[in-house]
Amino acid sequence: MSDAPTTEPCDGCGDPTTDALARVVRLSVDRANIDTQRLCPDCFADWIQRYQDRLGSGPSDADGDTSEIIVD
């Protein structure tokens, strides 16, 4: 087995990324693997930001009153 780190392309930008710097994002539903992405640090940071904006808590408000209640 070689001690040399492997270099694979980032799935986001295509730049070569060594194993030591790569981040792997896996999406699984009911234990079935739906998607796996190998990302460089910059693309991973972008992915985290998109996740927070779309699915996470999003940007926080200084006053803490960011929740909405909708009643039909």
UniProtKB/TrEMBL annotation:
Source organism superkingdom: Archaea
Protein's recorded name: Small CPxCG-related zinc finger protein
InterPro entries: DUF7569
Highest classification ranks of the organism: Archaea, Methanobacteriati, Methanobacteriota, Stenosarchaea group, Halobacteria
Pfam families the UniProt entry points to: DUF7569
